[in-house]
Amino acid sequence: MATIIYPSPIFGPVHSRRLGVSLGINLLPGDGKVCTFDCIYCECGFNGDHRPKQKMPSREEVATALEAKLQDMQQNGPTPDVFTFAGNGEPTANPHFPEIIDDTLRLRDRYFPKAKVSVLSNSTMIHKPEVRAALMRVDNNILKLDTIDPLYINKVDRPTGKYDVRKIIENLKLFNGHVIIQTMFMKGLSEGESVDNTGEEYVAPWLEAVKDIAPQQVMIYTIDRETPDHDLLKATHEELDSIRDRVIAAGIPCTASY
């Protein structure tokens, strides 16, 4: 299977479908995957297939590598649109995540003050007050909510620890609107069972949860790269557009990435 394992702690810049010219910040080891989900659609593969031997980068390692990269980009380009915390798993799982956010904002303001800081997270660590406080400081606090159906979550997102979607929703509400909800819509099969979450039985309750959270924006998207489970299929443009339009009709800005 095709798998993307990102260097650590800095990679790119890459062109993001949703964010533009994005300088990646990977707070996980550079030789494997560390995540609180084990999603069947993850471009980094399944957790069990990519156990790292390296440690997570320290706060000092991230700051040193980031500043060196920003100095190079300042001299040689390109100009970043965004610094994106992503990579080989869940960025907020790094124990120094709040302090690293402080360092990143300081360096951003020094070298590229117009760039945004984004975090792509699966929401599993937002019960921690220090993680929530750090996410409140970034420009784009992008948190996952693929569905509110527990059976679907266990089949597709496959949390590695305890996951209560109702508590996740309540914690998402604590951001008081300073949150962008990201949701993967897809079709196809996994172990012979449908994983299509584009139908009304999934979309309608998900939309009610989104309205309850009242985020600043919603980003919906579908599969873009090869997945470790090979029977998955992209949602169609028409399906994504229909869901997007329902979110917008609810008064919430929404984009669809195909």
Describe how the helices and strands are arranged:
Layout: E1 10-16, E2 20-26, H1 59-76, E3 82-86, H2 97-111, E4 116-121, H3 129-137, E5 140-144, H4 150-157, H5 165-173, E6 180-184, E7 186-190, E8 193-194, H6 200-213, E9 217-221, E10 232-234, H7 237-249, E11 254-257
Helix pairs in contact: 1-2, 2-3
Radius of gyration: 18 Å
Terminal CA distance reads 22 Å
SS-based class: alpha/beta
Count of alpha/pi helices: 7
Give the helix level as a range of percent: 25-40%
Molecular shape: globular
Biggest sheet record: 8 strands, mixed
Number of strands: 11
Average of pLDDT? 96
Which runs of at least 5 residues are low in confidence (pLDDT < 50)?
A: none
Strand order of the largest sheet: 1-2-3-4-5-6-9-11
SSE run:
EEHEHEHEHHEEEHEEHE
Strand content: 15-25%
